[in-house]
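Q: Here's a chain of 84 amino acids. Please give me its 3D structure as C-alpha cells.
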Amino acid sequence: MWGIVIDQVLSYKILGAHFQNDLKWDIHIDCIYKKAYKRLYSLWVLRWARVDQGSILKVYLGTIGPVMEYAVAVWQLIPGTLAR
C-alpha cells in the first residue's frame, strides 16, 4: 500500500532475547551460555579466596542466576522438549 520494503533478517535481538526466523533458539542459548560462563569466573575467584559458601551463593543468585533465567517464560515450552 505504501511501498515500504521490509528487510528479512535471520535473527533479531529484542529486550535481550534473540529470535530467529526459523523459530530455533540456538543464538539465544549461545549468548546466555557465553554471558554466564564469563561470570562463573567470579565464583572461581571467590572459591579460591576461601569465601564462605553462603556468600558465593549470594553472588551466584545475584549475577549468574538472572542471566540463566532471563526470558525463560518465552522459550521454556519449546516443542519437542516437553517431558513425555
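Q: Can you summarize the key feature?
A: The chain has three helices and two strands.
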